[in-house]
Amino acid sequence: MATGEVAFVLGGGGQLGAHEVGMLRALLERGIVPDLVVGTSIGAINGAAVAAEPTTEAVARLSEVWSRIERSDFFDGSIVGRLTTLARSRTHLQSNEALRTLLEESLAVGRIEDLAVRFECVAACVETASERWFDSGPLVDAVLASSAVPGLLPAVEIGGEHFLDGGIVNSIPVGRAAALGAREIYVLHVGRVEQPLRVPRWPWEVGLVAFEIARRHRFFGDLAALGEDVAVHVMPTGRTSSPTTLAGLRFGDTSRIAGHIAGAYEASLRYLSEQGSARR
């Protein structure tokens, strides 16, 4: 078994990020607490919450935040409202003000360096066409940048540069965690690495499947490059089908959030119990 820093790596995936909440609950209930948290997109949101307070009580509050999302139009928005925003902005369908307010209300810490656990999140820099890691400075701004879904939310300006969703450049950043010294990595993802992809059948599925190929290629390449002294646990979501259709990948479907949390929690508990038995 590897020794050294324990890292939680939280990937991107819109509303499917609810799976990560169940995984967090299972890990913390089993006494597995991170020394490092790295996140992308929705994983940056969940990751910032657990980095602020790595306790089961904090995860319970995070679950309530997701319940609020499910009861609201936070991800969805009205068609008229989105078209109005698009006509005005010409670049995005939805303002990020609701997300900013949610983050400011949910995160008691104002700056990344003041979090209880070391935390980094990634965003894609438009001007340099590269990934940018945020490890200090205003927390909400960094998380907003990491979760700025192209076409849906506006780019976030920080220090004179503009940033879009971190999933564009590094959707499941296991390599970053290892580079920062992690020797035991728990990968919290949204369920899109467990099932085989299908050839797209409709025009709108082509881009989605292409993006999924790119993100999986990066993830599995990063896994293969890790040293033998790094132990990796890819947490299960509990899903039995692959969300690689339009319905499964779209940002706005919040109808099954509670099920995502509960399924990932139960599957993760089983996985951790099996791991414990194997070590004994």
Structural description of this entry:
The chain is α/β, with parallel strands linked by helices and 280 residues long. The protein contains ten helices and eight strands. It has helices spanning 18-29, 42-52, 56-71, 79-89, 97-106, 139-146, 174-179, 203-225, 246-249, 257-279, and strands spanning 5-10, 36-40, 118-125, 130-134, 156-158, 161-164, 182-188, 231-234. Strands 1, 2, 3, 4, 5, 6, 7 and 8 form an eight-stranded mixed sheet that branches. α8 links the parallel β7 (182-188) and β8. α1 (18-29) runs antiparallel to α3. It is globular, with a radius of gyration of 18 Å. Mean pLDDT is 85; it is low at 78-84 and 243-253.
Helices, by number, come to 10
Q: What is the count of β-strands?
A: 8
Largest sheet: 8 strands, mixed
Query: Regions with pLDDT < 50 over 5+ consecutive residues?
Result: 78-84, 243-253
Tell me, rounded to a whole number, the average pLDDT: 85
Shape: globular
Radius of gyration: 18 Å
Give the SSE map:
Layout: E1 5-10, H1 18-29, E2 36-40, H2 42-52, H3 56-71, H4 79-89, H5 97-106, E3 118-125, E4 130-134, H6 139-146, E5 156-158, E6 161-164, H7 174-179, E7 182-188, H8 203-225, E8 231-234, H9 246-249, H10 257-279
Parallel strand pairs: 1-2, 1-7, 2-3, 7-8
Antiparallel strand pairs: 3-4, 3-6, 5-6
Q: How would you describe this structure in keywords?
A:
44% helix; eight-stranded mixed beta sheet; alpha/beta; 280 residues; globular
